[in-house]
């Protein structure tokens, strides 16, 4: 999977929040994907559980702003961003891993209470 | 492991490059640690192999500058930074995972050729 294709998925991920379109989330994740957000919490397993999770975040009005370049390596991409919600900003790093068909099969989000601000 | 302790390890990691002190690397990694830099390449396994790897980078004059906040989650910390070497800058995201004694037992570095600049 080329870096440009991985970066395009990151851009579609940002677009899903911008346009409040969970259909994009359904399209970029594999059926059997696992989302751990934040790392250390109970993972969301499978596309339906994942879409329900994102409906919550997108429904709450969250937007994403990239705060650095996407780093592509192996079957993965890592990227730093800020989640912006009414009255709250949160610094996050996500790591996507892709399967052979170019779908995300693992997402890990790194953030903690220290990363929240106004 | 508290977030402040994880962040202190990140700061010591930066210091290891600043002061060209591989002794710090030997102190913050576990004996059986695995370093995959970049992700997708053959990992360096065990403290001796890891120190040899870092001696190369540190000996080449590499310095690290954090480019965002460290994100602590679960047993891990992820942080964005730039590697600065003569004539080259490289955007990287590292993920450290810690064992129960507070040593790094897994390091994954995310970067690709697209992340290099002058």
TrEMBL record, chains A, B:
Tell me which species this is from. Answer: Kineobactrum sediminis
UniProt KW keywords: Isomerase
Pfam entry (one): SnoaL_2
A single MF term (Gene Ontology)? isomerase activity
Q: What InterPro entries does the record tag this protein with?
A: NTF2-like_dom_sf, SnoaL-like
Instruction: Give the protein name, as stated in the record.
Output: Steroid delta-isomerase
From which residue to which does the signal peptide run? none
According to the entry, every stretch annotated as the SnoaL-like domain falls at: 10-105
């Amino acid at each position: 999977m080329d870096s440009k294709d991985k970066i395009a998925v990151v851009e579609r991920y940002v677009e899903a929040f911008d346009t409040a379109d969970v259909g994009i989330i359904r399209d970029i994740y594999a059926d059997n994907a696992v989302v751990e957000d934040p790392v250390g919490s109970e993972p969301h397993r499978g596309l339906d559980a994942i879409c329900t999770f994102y409906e919550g975040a997108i429904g709450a009005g969250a937007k994403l702003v990239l705060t650095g370049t996407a780093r592509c390596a192996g079957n993965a991409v890592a990227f730093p961003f800020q989640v912006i919600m009414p009255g709250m900003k949160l610094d996050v790093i996500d790591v996507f891993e892709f399967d052979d068909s170019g779908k995300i099969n693992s997402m890990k989000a790194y953030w903690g209470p220290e990363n929240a601000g106004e």
